[in-house]
Design a protein that fits this description.
The protein is about 45% helix and about 20% strand. The protein has 6 helices and 4 strands. Strands 3-1-2-4 form a 4-stranded antiparallel β-sheet.
Length: about 170
């Protein structure tokens, strides 16, 4: 039962006037859209429970890295009460979902990519790629992971103006 098949899914949802994307795990195909908050299922893969958890971890880390990078660049991305903001386009989420699902099939590539993703949490991989620190497959995977973090919204940046302390 520990590694029973699970559905890893990407769906759109709506709750109390607020839209969102959600990536999660359900144990039955029928339960995905039985959730009254979910509208449409865009990706669905039946895999083992442990595999689903590992892939979901990588997808969430990738998305959090992307959202943090956008926040650091002062882009306004709404934070819905649940799930992922509709400000992130579906094709970006599908690319992230598909990449991590596919790379999981190759244990060596998975371990390399997951390690690079954890490094990407702290620093951009671009400097390591351009500086020649990465070679061979590591460089190839780092380039692909960096591509998963390249989304820039069409929305304007927030121009943060701090009021003077003495006013």
């Amino acid at each position: 039962m520990q590694n029973s098949p699970q559905y890893l899914f990407l769906a759109s949802g709506h709750k109390e006037g607020e839209g969102f994307w959600i990536i999660g795990i359900k144990n039955c195909d029928e339960y995905i859209l039985d959730d009254k908050n979910l509208l449409d299922c865009h990706r669905k893969e039946l895999i083992g429970n442990e595999s689903a958890k590992a892939i979901l971890f990588a997808i969430n880390l990738n998305i959090n890295n992307l959202l943090n990078a956008l926040k650091n660049k002062n882009y306004l991305i709404e934070r819905p009460s649940m799930g992922i903001s509709f400000d992130i386009p579906l094709d970006i989420l599908e690319s992230i979902f598909d990449f991590w699902l596919d790379i999981y099939k190759n244990k060596e590539a998975w371990e390399t990519c997951l390690g690079l993703l954890k490094v990407r949490k702290r620093i951009s991989l671009r400097n390591l790629i351009e500086g020649g620190s990465l070679k061979g497959n590591s460089k190839k995977w780092a380039t692909e992971i960096e591509t998963l973090h390249n989304y820039v919204p069409n929305s304007l940046k927030l121009e943060k103006l701090n009021d003077p302390m003495w006013k």
